[in-house]
User: Which sequence fits this backbone?
């Protein structure tokens, strides 16, 4: 430290003093592997601050139609009474998220109304793109990302040194989230945050509150339900243990918590006898097997194989009826888009997902270890991504972020993480 | 960096340094790209628009008119509409950018006459790319060169932070990539000249600084420091006269080369020069945070004195305030004191010279950012004040959002937690170490060095 040549003497002296002081500091740190909460908050604050600056700079960037989707939901929830929310068809962008998300939009719209009433106007607001709405919606995503920060914090505080920094880089500076939330425009940040909070509680062994947060998450965005089988098996085996009596009592407790959450979300719609409409909006199975932008999943290869087979068989002299229907189009109807291979129905994709998840379900049944839950959930989302019906490539975020946490534990996982995150995003 | 870093051999040290500077440079580039999404000066504001239109107009002029008429009022070149008033290198740069970027992809945007006030998304994108490419090709390498020859040579450890301070200077980013100018070229050339002096290439330094002067005459703010430092050094050599002669010839040769299209007659040179020095303007305009403008609240300079006496006053004030540092440089030139001399001379010009623009604060800010490691307090506050002084300008440009974001980003990078740990002097920059950990992790996967890496990761504590 002290051998820097061209410095004046006094400076060298102070340096030596400070370095000796810091060595004692580092020694004391060595003894406590778990760093204090304050330094985690400081570090998190720094990472979040830098990320927020980047997000602010992204405000005028390109935005997809999802921006108008969310703008319309603001108008819809604020100008229509609750029973009409899932019936509205003023815009093609109908409400297709579960009720908690609609309540969230209602909350946001109360602020939007103060800023600029046109934002929440059902008709005049269509395709509204004034500065006010752009700033409001972009800032609302940035503020909502506080949820993500809390989720990251709950994981980061248990880690040490380089691992913690890497975790913060992977979550808070995640390029996938930046692109999808702050350029493309969605609210995945705080949803992933809720998932992380839930997982962190499970890892601590606090199953009831972990289950509560997962139920809340499902009522925000039902696409997260892919991991529900894993949650169910894990909670059944880990939480509802300790004999038949205690087990059953805990099962009831968990059921009551989850039921209460779902009741809060769907209660008003059950009261108005609209559940059928709500569910049909939430699960649009009329849409194609693959989304307009093909997610690089199993069905893409299936379709390519079908096209290839059709081509080869026609050449060989078989008569193949060319299909007119598109795979990605809005409404497929009854005609099968496949020429050779069997038709794929939502039920088939559902069974395939379950089949793909089943190895980790078996593991979770046999040995429900809290330390493995994040890994299993990430695995389940990967399966859902690969075999699900009408999967959007954005769904890859669901497993990229949890896998980032798993990646910190070993090299094997880091390799998977690197492959998947660079491959899909 | 070499032997003095605590983490092993010099090759690891260098690779760590290369890696972290790459990351910082990439981040700085990303920030510039993001700022370029925002509006430019005078966007959608006819009839004169702003600096963006000026630069675009110069491309139009240089592309379509022969170089003899660039600085002359002709039927095809109306000098009252953003006439060229920067030295020839700027004109060449406009020509090159117009030829490489605008002409091939959007010929409409640089068509003679018809393109006045041209505004299109593609035109904006191409114009932004010209600045982005100039920045990465000139300012970034110059900053790296400077760090290598100055701080690393002295065995300073926190060079990654120092590099971030130079590259993430909010004022420079927002003026070049938001407001729209090419300060990165002239400042980058000056920075490269400073680095060349530190690596004992005085002749190259003279060429670079002459080029900088020929890109923007404002670089003359640094001239007294360069002059006195090089003179002081030459006087210490065996053959002082020969050394001075060599430098003088190099400077004259560079100037002659740049000015060659205008050297055919005396009138042509005088015509160009008259465009460069607009002395018909007042002592200050708008709100410049310099001496004359600030004191005008109490002393009404413009009413009390004539323009001629004000010129004399400002010239003597500038000269007197530079003099001590010049004398010091001639008597005892050293690398460290040269940086301070650069700061002094550019600051004197900013505070006391005639007709200063608020954007000129970028000039003293450059040497200040070079001294960030040694004078963190001064650098930090100077940046804050500089940003504050440019607030009215950037408010007119609708650049308040990137203004706030860049300012906060600067504060965050300045107070990096990694920096704070490092101040204790435990190790080389933690940020560098951790960046390397990530890369080693990925690298090790390929090599299969599993165990050593896990143990390495486990040992990462601070």
Assistant:
């Amino acid at each position: 430290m002290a051998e820097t040549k061209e410095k004046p003497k006094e400076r060298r002296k102070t340096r030596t003093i400070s370095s000796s002081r810091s060595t004692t500091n580092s020694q004391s740190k060595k003894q406590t592997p778990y760093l204090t909460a304050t330094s985690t908050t400081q570090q998190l604050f720094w990472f979040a601050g830098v990320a927020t600056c980047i997000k602010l700079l992204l405000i005028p960037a390109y935005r997809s139609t999802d921006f108008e989707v969310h703008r319309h939901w603001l108008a819809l929830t604020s100008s229509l009474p609750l029973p009409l929310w899932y019936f509205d068809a003023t815009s093609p962008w109908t409400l297709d998220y579960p009720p908690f998300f609609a309540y969230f939009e209602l909350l946001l719209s109360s602020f939007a109304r103060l800023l600029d009433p046109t934002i929440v106007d059902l008709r005049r607001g269509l395709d509204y793109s004034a500065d006010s709405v752009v700033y409001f919606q972009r800032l609302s995503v940035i503020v909502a990302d506080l949820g993500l920060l809390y989720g990251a914090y709950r994981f980061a505080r248990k880690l040490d040194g380089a691992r913690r920094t890497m975790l913060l880089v992977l979550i808070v500076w995640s390029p996938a989230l930046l692109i999808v939330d702050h350029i493309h425009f969605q609210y995945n940040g705080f949803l992933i945050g809720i998932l992380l909070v839930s997982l962190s509680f499970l890892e601590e062994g606090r199953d009831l509150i972990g289950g509560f947060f997962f139920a809340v998450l499902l009522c925000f965005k039902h696409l997260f339900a892919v991991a529900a089988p894993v949650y169910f098996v894990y909670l059944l085996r880990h939480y509802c243990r300790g004999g038949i009596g205690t087990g059953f009592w805990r099962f009831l407790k968990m059921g009551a918590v989850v039921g209460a959450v779902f009741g809060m979300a769907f209660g008003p719609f059950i009261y108005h006898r609209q559940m059928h409409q709500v569910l049909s909006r939430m699960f649009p199975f009329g849409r194609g097997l693959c989304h307009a932008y093909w997610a690089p999943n199993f069905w893409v290869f299936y379709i390519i194989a079908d096209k290839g087979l059709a081509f080869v068989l026609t050449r060989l002299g078989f008569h193949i009826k060319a299909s007119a229907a598109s795979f990605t189009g809005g409404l497929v109807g009854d005609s099968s888009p496949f020429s050779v291979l069997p038709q794929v129905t939502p039920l088939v994709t559902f069974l395939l997902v379950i089949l793909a998840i089943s190895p980790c379900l078996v593991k979770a049944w046999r040995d429900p270890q809290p330390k493995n839950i994040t890994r299993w959930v990430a695995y389940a989302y990967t399966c859902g991504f690969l075999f699900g019906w009408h999967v959007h490539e954005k769904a890859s975020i669901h497993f990229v972020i949890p896998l980032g946490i798993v990646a910190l534990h070993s090299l094997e996982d880091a390799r998977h993480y690197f492959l998947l995150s660079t491959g899909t995003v | 960096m070499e032997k003095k870093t605590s983490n092993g051999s010099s090759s690891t040290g260098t690779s760590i340094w290369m890696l972290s500077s790459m990351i910082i440079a990439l981040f700085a580039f990303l920030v510039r790209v993001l700022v370029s999404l925002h509006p430019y000066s005078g966007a959608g504001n006819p009839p004169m628009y702003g600096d963006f239109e000026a630069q675009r107009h110069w491309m139009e002029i240089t592309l379509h008119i022969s170089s003899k008429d660039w600085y002359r009022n002709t039927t095809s070149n109306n000098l009252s509409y953003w006439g060229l008033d920067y030295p020839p290198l700027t004109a060449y740069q406009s020509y090159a950018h117009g030829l490489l970027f605008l002409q091939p992809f959007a010929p409409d945007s640089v068509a003679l006459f018809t393109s006045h006030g041209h505004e299109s998304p593609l035109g904006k994108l191409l114009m932004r790319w010209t600045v982005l490419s100039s920045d990465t090709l000139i300012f970034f390498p110059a900053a790296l060169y400077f760090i290598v020859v100055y701080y690393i040579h002295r065995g300073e450890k926190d060079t990654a932070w120092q590099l971030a301070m130079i590259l993430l200077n909010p004022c420079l980013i927002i003026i070049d990539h938001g407001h729209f100018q090419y300060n990165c070229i002239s400042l980058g050339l000056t920075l490269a000249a400073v680095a060349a002096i530190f690596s004992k290439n005085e002749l190259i330094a003279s060429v670079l600084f002459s080029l900088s002067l020929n890109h923007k005459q404002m670089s003359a703010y640094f001239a007294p420091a360069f002059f006195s430092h090089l003179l002081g050094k030459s006087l210490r050599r065996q053959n002082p006269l020969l050394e001075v002669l060599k430098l003088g010839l190099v400077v004259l040769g560079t100037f002659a080369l740049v000015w060659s299209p205008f050297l055919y007659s005396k009138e042509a040179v005088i015509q160009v020069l008259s465009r460069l020095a607009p002395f018909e303007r007042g002592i200050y305009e708008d709100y410049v945070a310099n001496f004359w403008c600030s004191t005008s609240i109490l002393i009404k300079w413009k009413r009390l004195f004539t323009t001629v006496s004000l010129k004399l006053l400002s010239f003597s004030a500038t000269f007197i305030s530079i003099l001590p540092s010049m004398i010091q440089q001639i008597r005892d030139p050293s690398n460290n004191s040269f940086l301070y001399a650069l700061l002094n001379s550019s600051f004197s010009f900013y505070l006391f010279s005639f007709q200063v623009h608020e954007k000129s604060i970028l000039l003293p800010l450059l040497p200040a950012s070079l001294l960030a490691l040694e004078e963190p307090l001064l650098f930090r506050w100077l940046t804050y004040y500089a940003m504050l002084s440019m607030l009215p300008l950037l408010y007119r440009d609708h650049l308040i959002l990137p203004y706030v974001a860049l300012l906060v980003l600067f504060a965050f990078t300045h107070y990096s937690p990694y920096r704070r740990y490092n101040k204790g002097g435990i190790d080389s920059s933690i940020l560098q170490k951790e960046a390397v950990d990530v890369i080693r992790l990925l690298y090790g996967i390929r090599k299969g060095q599993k165990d050593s890496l896990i143990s390495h990761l486990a040992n990462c504590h601070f």
